[in-house]
Specification:
With 355 residues, the protein is an alpha/beta fold. Helices cover 30% and strands 16% of the residues. A hairpin with a 2-residue loop joins strand 1 and strand 2.
C-alpha cells in the first residue's frame, strides 16, 4: 500500500512524495512586462519540499490576462525572470510545473493594453465582477473568438509551453478549470456556438483536446498535466451532462500520454472514481473539503488508491514546509486571508521554513 510520503515517478520526474502544491493566483508579478520578481523565487523555493509544485496561473499570451499583476510566459523577459524561480526550487530538490491559464472572458479591458477586450467562445458576459487596480468592475461582454484566433490561441499555449521549458520548468499544467477559457468552451451557458467548437459534447471539448495535443507535441506529453473542475459553477459556469461531458474529455485526452490529470473535485465522489478509473496515467486529486481547507485527513485517499497525489492549496500558503508538518501530524499555521493575494500582504516570508 502506498502512502502520501512515498516517492513517485511522474512520467520520469522523480517526486520525493505524493503531496502536491496546488496552483493559487498570487497577483504579485510586479516586475516590468508582467514578470515575476525575486520574491517569487523565495516563495516557491520555500515550498520545494512538495513532491510537485504547480505554479500560479501564467498567461500564455497578452489577452489571456484576467487579473492585475499576474505573470506571463510569452516574452523573452518573462522567460528570463522565471529562471531564478525554477533554479530556487531545483536547488532544494523540488519539481515545478508552470500552470498555463488563459482567463478568457474573465477579466476587464483596463487590465489589457491597446484597447483590447477579453475574449471568449461566445459574446456572453459572465455575471459578477473582477478586481482591478481601480477596484472591482463588472465583467464585460467578451469578443467571440474567430476560427483563426482559436488556432492562434492553441499555438500560443504551445509557444508558452516551450518557453516554460526554456525557463527551467519541469513541465506545464493546462488550466481547463475554474471558469477560464478552456472551461468556458465546455460550459453550455458561456459557449453558445453552433460551429465545430460548440453545441455537441465533441464540439465543447475540442479546444481542451487540441490545446493538450499541441502542447504535448511541443514539449512531450510526459511534461504535460491537465486540470479540470467538473460541475464547478465558479465564474458563472453552467455545464450540462457533466459525467458524460468529462468522460468524453478524459477519453480524448488519454491517448495523448500526458503526465497527469488534476481533478478539482465536486461533491460527487462517484464521478471522481469514474474519472480515476478511466484515466491511464497519474491522477492528482484536489479533494472536495468545503468549507474546510484540505487537511491531513486527505492523505488517506492515496492509501485508498483514489489518487496518486493529493493537492493542497491554502494550507501550503501558511505552512511552506507542509510535507514535514503533515508527516508529524502538525502543528499547522492557520491560513490568513491576508496571505492570499497581493497588495501589502506578505505571504512569502511570514513563516519559517521549519519549526
Amino acid at each position: 500500500m502506498s502512502t502520501a510520503f512515498d516517492p513517485f515517478d511522474l512520467a520520469g520526474a522523480k517526486l520525493a512524495n505524493r503531496i502536491a502544491m496546488a496552483p493559487m493566483t498570487r497577483s504579485r508579478a510586479y516586475g516590468p512586462g508582467a514578470t515575476p520578481t525575486s520574491e517569487t523565487a523565495v516563495y516557491y523555493g520555500q515550498r520545494a519540499s512538495a513532491g510537485l509544485i504547480v505554479t500560479e496561473g501564467i498567461q500564455p499570451n497578452v489577452i489571456g490576462q484576467g487579473y492585475p499583476d499576474t505573470p506571463g510566459l510569452h516574452s523573452p523577459d518573462q522567460v528570463a525572470a522565471w529562471r531564478p524561480v525554477t533554479q530556487a526550487v531545483h536547488e532544494r530538490g523540488g519539481v515545478i510545473f508552470a500552470q498555463l491559464m488563459h482567463t478568457g472572458r474573465i477579466g476587464h479591458p483596463s487590465l489589457l493594453p491597446d484597447g483590447l477586450v477579453p475574449v471568449g467562445p461566445s459574446a456572453v458576459a459572465a455575471q459578477g465582477q473582477v478586481f482591478t487596480h481601480e477596484g472591482p468592475k463588472d465583467f464585460v461582454v467578451p469578443r467571440e473568438l474567430g476560427e483563426q484566433e482559436i488556432a492562434q490561441t492553441i499555438a500560443d499555449f504551445a509557444a508558452a509551453a516551450r518557453n516554460a521549458i526554456a525557463a527551467g520548468f519541469d513541465g506545464v499544467e493546462i488550466h481547463g478549470a475554474n471558469g477560464y477559457l478552456i472551461h468556458q468552451f465546455l460550459s453550455a451557458n458561456a459557449n453558445q456556438r453552433t460551429d465545430g467548437w460548440g453545441g455537441s459534447i465533441e464540439g465543447r471539448i475540442r479546444l481542451g483536446v487540441e490545446v493538450a495535443a499541441a502542447v504535448a507535441d511541443a514539449i512531450g506529453g510526459e511534461r504535460v498535466g491537465f486540470r479540470i473542475s467538473p460541475g464547478n459553477p465558479y465564474n458563472n459556469m453552467a455545464e450540462e451532462n457533466v459525467a458524460e461531458l468529462y468522460g468524453a474529455l478524459v477519453a480524448r485526452l488519454a491517448p495523448l500520454d500526458l503526465a497527469y490529470l488534476h481533478l478539482m473535485e465536486d461533491p460527487d465522489r462517484d464521478l471522481t472514481r469514474q474519472l480515476r478509473q478511466a484515466w491511464p496515467a497519474a491522477f492528482v486529486l484536489n479533494p472536495f473539503t468545503h468549507p474546510q481547507f484540505t487537511g491531513h485527513d486527505a492523505l488517506a485517499l492515496v492509501e485508498e488508491g483514489l489518487a496518486d497525489l493529493i493537492a493542497f492549496g491554502a494550507l501550503f500558503l501558511a505552512n511552506p514546509d507542509l510535507p514535514h508538518r503533515l508527516a508529524q501530524g502538525g502543528p499547522f499555521n492557520t491560513p490568513d486571508a491576508a496571505t492570499f493575494y497581493g497588495g501589502d500582504a506578505r505571504g512569502y516570508t511570514d513563516y519559517p521554513t521549519l519549526d
